[in-house]
Automatic annotation (TrEMBL):
Positions of the ABC transporter domain: 39-298
Protein name stated in the entry: ABC transporter ATP-binding protein
This protein's record includes keyword ATP-binding: yes
Keywords: ATP-binding, Nucleotide-binding, Transport
Species assigned in the record: Subtercola boreus
Length: 332
């Protein structure tokens, strides 16, 4: 993993250019096939009572790029995340009795493996991990302990290993080294012995992202990474996300912050009322009158036009203010 996290989004990296190039010939149509799909989803529906929250008939996510999933409140984005990461089961899941007709049952494949009907732990083991809209850091554990929980092949998982100290001590030491490297990358190393509950909202988001990386995922799914984060931390979060893509990871994120979507996405998928209604590069999708009508509405001009927060000078000033604020919070 590179430790060079870009501090600005204004320069495009070679990996970023390659990511954009990989989808340049893909037609801008909902459900369109991708040249190298890492995730393919078919017939995934989820109903709550009489309401259909998700109805995705076909969707592909291209490997190695940053894809944004956008849509109005209640469009089904989080429910869709839950379904593909095994935190929820599709209403169209294959069942022995009373299930959907053959060919209409939900099917998802990730990195060449079926993931449609398995639980979250197994999905994570296949290399697809996620973060949550509301962070799930365990507040009564230290930052380092939270990180250690994210590691795979924990010594305690194997009875044989757990009984032989040299075996588990070696693995424990490896986990700690990795956790500290990631904490350093996310500028949280100084906080490693602090309780996670004492971190600011932005720091908790960083911790959650860092913890997700402990399992060396192939794809990371971020549910509203900017929600509740002070605007000054935005720049650093954007840099971290781009760095993940530049290291070869696939990123899929849900976000309402249109600055973020426009500046770091290589591809954008729009959901409305549970369905995929548009796909394409950010510039194309966000200028699509149908998308503006369905989603961006009256906020279109203000949300999409103001890039001033993303200039280096403003970001640096804001970052300095926030660091001071967070230091003060941490001491309090
Ligand atoms: N457990 C549940 N029980 C009943 N209805 C639910 C449940 N979870 C989600 N819904 C409903 O499903 C629809 C889709 O919700 P979801 O949270 O997936 O949308 P979203 O696009 O993520 O919205 P937001 O952007 O506000 O987070 C909403 O109408 C929501 O009220």
């Amino acid at each position: 993993m590179s430790s060079d996290v870009p501090t600005t989004t204004s320069t495009i990296t070679a990996a970023g250019a390659a990511a954009k190039a990989s989808v340049v010939d893909v037609p801008h149509e909902p459900g369109v096939a991708k040249p190298d799909a890492i995730l393919t989803v078919d017939h995934v529906t989820r109903r709550f009572g009489g309401m259909t929250a998700v109805d995705v008939q076909h969707l592909e996510v291209q490997r190695g790029i940053i894809t944004a999933l956008i849509g109005p409140n209640g469009a089904g984005k989080t429910t869709f995340f839950n379904l593909i990461t095994g935190f929820d089961k599709p209403s169209s899941a294959p069942k022995l009795i009373g299930g959907p007709k053959a060919g209409e049952a939900a099917k998802s494949s990730f990195n060449g493996n079926e993931v449609g009907n398995i639980g979250a732990t197994k999905v994570a083991k296949q290399g697809m991990v996620r973060t949550f809209q509301l962070t799930k850091a365990l507040s009564k554990l230290t930052v380092l302990e939270n990180m250690r929980l994210g590691a795979k092949d924990q010594p305690g998982e194997n009875l044989f290993v757990s009984m032989i100290k040299p075996l588990w001590a070696k693995r424990e030491a490896e986990i700690t080294v990795k956790a500290e490297e990631l904490l350093a990358r996310f500028k949280l190393l100084e906080k490693k012995d602090d309780m996670a509950g004492s971190l600011s909202g932005g720091q908790k988001k960083l911790l959650e992202m860092a913890r997700a990386l402990m399992s060396d995922p192939v794809m990371i799914m971020l549910d509203e990474p900017m929600a509740g984060v002070n605007p000054a931390l935005t720049q650093s979060l954007l840099g971290h996300i781009q760095a993940l893509r530049d290291d070869g990871m696939t990123v899929l994120f849900v976000e309402h912050d249109m600055h973020m979507v426009r500046h770091i996405s290589d591809w954008v998928i729009v959901m409305a009322e549970g369905r995929v209604v548009a796909e394409g590069p950010a510039a194309t999708v966000m200028d699509d009158p149908a998308v503006i009508d369905a989603y961006l509405g009256a906020h279109h001009n203000t949300d999409l036009g103001d890039d001033s927060l993303l200039t280096d000078e403003v970001a640096e000033e804001l970052a300095a203010e926030v660091t001071a604020e967070e230091n003060a919070e941490g001491k309090a």
